[in-house]
Amino acid sequence: MDAVTRKLCALLDRDDVELQCSAARVLGELGSAGREVRLCLAKHLKTQNLTLKHYLLSALERLPGREALPYLFPLLREGGKVQERALALIGSCGPAAVQEGRRLFAGADEEFRKLIVRIFGALGTVEACAFLVGCIPGATPDLRRSVGLALREAMEKLPAAGKKLLLKKIDALFSSPKGTVSAEVAAAGVMLLGCAADPASLGKLIRAAAPDQPAPVREQALLALARIDIPRARAREVVAALVPALRESDYANVVRHALAVLHRVEFPGTLAAKLDEELRGAHPAVRSFLLSKMSAFGSKENIARLIGHLNAGSFDERRAAQEALAGIPAAAAEILKELDAAKDYEAAMRLVSILKAQGAKPDAAEKRRLFDRMEKLRAAGDARAAAYAAALTVADPAFLISRVLGVVRRLKSRKAFAEADALFATLARHAPLDDELKFERAVVKLRRGLPDLASSQRDEHEGLRLIAELLRQEGFPLLRRLKAEKALGPEELYHVGFHFAEKLFAQREFGVALLRHLASRSPRSKAGTAARRKLEIVGAPVPKRS
Question: Per the domain annotation, does 86 fall within a domain?
Answer without folding.
Answer: no
